[in-house]
Amino acid sequence: MEEGQPPSILPFLLLLLIPLPTALCWGKDGHYAVCKIAQDYLSEDALSAVKELLPGSAQGHLAAVCSWADDVGYTHNYRWSQPLHYVDTPDFICNYRYCRDCHDSSGHKHVCVTAAIHNYTMQLQSQLNYNLTEALMFLSHFVGDVHQPLHVGFLGDLGGNTITVRWYRRKTNLHHVWDDMIIESALKRFYGSDLSTMIQAIQSNITDIWLNDVPVWESCAHNYTACPNWYASESISLACKFAYRNATPGSTLEDEYFLSRLPIVEQRLAQAGVRLAAILNRIFTSKTGTITGTARL
Ligand SMILES: *[C@@H]1O[C@H](CO)[C@@H](O)[C@H](O)[C@H]1NC(C)=O
Ligand SMILES: *[C@@H]1O[C@H](CO)[C@@H](O)[C@H](O)[C@H]1NC(C)=O
Ligand SMILES: *[C@@H]1O[C@H](CO)[C@@H](O)[C@H](O)[C@H]1NC(C)=O
Ligand SMILES: *[C@@H]1O[C@H](CO)[C@@H](O)[C@H](O)[C@H]1NC(C)=O
Ligand SMILES: [Zn+2]
What we know:
This protein is mainly alpha-helical. It is built from 12 helices and 3 strands, in the order H-H-H-H-H-H-H-E-E-H-H-H-H-E-H. Strands 2-1-3 form a 3-stranded mixed sheet.
């Protein structure tokens, strides 16, 4: 609206007509959990790098900036980043291929969540002329997103966004169920509506039933710093086996769906947290290695 013009009601009417932009990713709780879990696994080097890159109110806490990419994604200056939150496969294809799938809706290649993880890992590693605070905030967010199974869903239904379902009595869509509703219902039912209790439960399993899996989760083939293509392949496979199954348009999802899918959600939050820490530890260890390479002299 221009200064001095009478306020027009038109933009507000238009807002009512246009469907709200579909959710970008794990809700705030999911992202918070991923970053909170990662924080505890940071090496000393990574922790001090994170503290350097996140001054001010975040005070070196990843969880404080984990949803930043969503918050800015709706603003004009960062609209370009919206396609970086997900990647879609062709309809009913339960595998992911970088070359086939990583593009935006206009067909521009290398624009998707896995490319973004490569991109920001590379930026943090190269330490060149990038805004490394933004790189860290984007990376922390996108490692979370790529673990949400429906962030690697089918193109035709926009990762479940166009599949209208009922979550118990509430009307919503399947994507939103996986971003938010499963976590929200779990918080109410099992964790006294307290996110930190849920995070602690996930952390206990990381050091118990998943202990032997953690080194596998952390590792990347060829000693790569990050391996987003692998995380995306897991996600589409889980999307087919669990998210899409028995969740056709118009269906009502209740206890049977909720109780069988919650363990998947909790394990994906755990994997995302462990892997985010592993990626940052590799980035900032190699960084220290380069800088203090002179120590060998
Ligand atoms: C890589 O990062 C730069 C800087 O934020 C951004 O302009 C570009 O769109 C990013 N590309 C991808 C695929 O993430
Ligand atoms: C880097 O990005 C952050 C977050 O957008 C911003 O607050 C900061 O001013 C940027 N730094 C530079 C040097 O542009
Ligand atoms: C932890 O593991 C137990 C045993 O498999 C399982 O019953 C529980 O749901 C898991 N909790 C979380 C938060 O992963
Ligand atoms: C990965 O790194 C480890 C330890 O630095 C090394 O022993 C191993 O040979 C490397 N593997 C590959 C495939 O490069
Ligand atoms: Zn997102």
